[in-house]
Amino acid sequence: MTQLPAASISAQPGIAYRKVKSILISEIASGALQPGVKFPNETALAKRFGVSVGTLRRAVEELVAENILVRQHGRGTFVRSLDEERFLFQFFKLADRDGNFEYPKVELVAFSQAQATSQEAKVLGLQSGDAVFRLENVLSLQDRATVHDRISIDAKLFEGLTQQCLTQRAGTIYELYQRRFGVTIACADERLRAEDADARSAELLGIAPGASVLRIERVAFTVENRPCEWRISIVNSSRVDYVSRSAHN
Q1: Are residues 67 and 176 in the same domain?
Q2: What distance in Å separates the CA atoms of residue 65 and residue 79, rounded to the nearest whole number?
Q3: What are the strands, taking DSSP E only, across 31-123?
Q4: What is the pLDDT of residues 8-21, one digit of tens each?
Q5: At 19, is the secondary structure helix, strand, or coil?
Q6: What sign for the dihedral angle of Cα 89, 90, 91, 93?
Q7: Residue 206: which domain range?
Q8: CATH of the domain at 47
């Protein structure tokens, strides 16, 4: 593991654990703690911060609950990697009628850089006119086009992103964000509604314009609670269900 600097925190336990958590989040966001990196044991971490093991454990448990860290039985605690398994569990919620989940085949159909619209700026916390990357993907399940994604991301956070990066990536797009750009997606807010398919989505999904579809709007946030991705997913829900799952111990 990367040698991290010592830190001394002097505060009441209820405040100290939040400071420990804040430092750990900053180190994950900065790349000092990389995905897959094993944490020292809790005694060593507590000594580094100058807090009790109980205070340290409270901070770590909150990060585990927030899916930023993961405990692996018999191995220790790690920064969570946003691999296919994690992506399917936390962010991809479409299952077939029998409740089976599969990782979709992703095809990039458009990529561009542009000035943020007023809506993009509002959602992503930018100034109107700041640069954004815009992506369009078609996601196929069982070899059938099922989802049309329109994605806007802050170009400053993903400086150097290219079409080649996207088409040749290994793993999920959130793994690409995490490993290449140091942006870890911790959580997302979603809003769902039924609507009629527009001409673009209808063409890409092979359905009639005006057909009923499910619209999922997602805003994804970094470990520092910064909005970094705005995604509109148009879903042909004639063969799939939206399923929200909870972790079970």
Answers
A1: no
A2: 12
A3: 69-72, 76-79, 94-96, 105-115
A4: 455 555 678 888 88
A5: helix
A6: positive
A7: 84-242
A8: 1.10.10.10
- 66 lies in the same domain as 115: no
pLDDT tens per residue, range 196-224:
999 999 999 999 999 999 999 999 999 88
Contact 205, 138 (CB under 8 A): yes
Helix (H) or strand (E) holding 202: helix 199-205
Instruction: Assess contact for 87 and 97: CB atoms under 8 A.
Output: no
Q: What is the DSSP letter of 80?
A: P
- Does any domain span residue 248? no
Instruction: Indicate if 22 and 142 belong to the same structural domain.
Output: no
Rg (CA), the chain: 20
Cα angle 246, 91, 27; round to 5: 95
Backbone torsions φ then ψ of 106, nearest 5 degrees: -110, 130
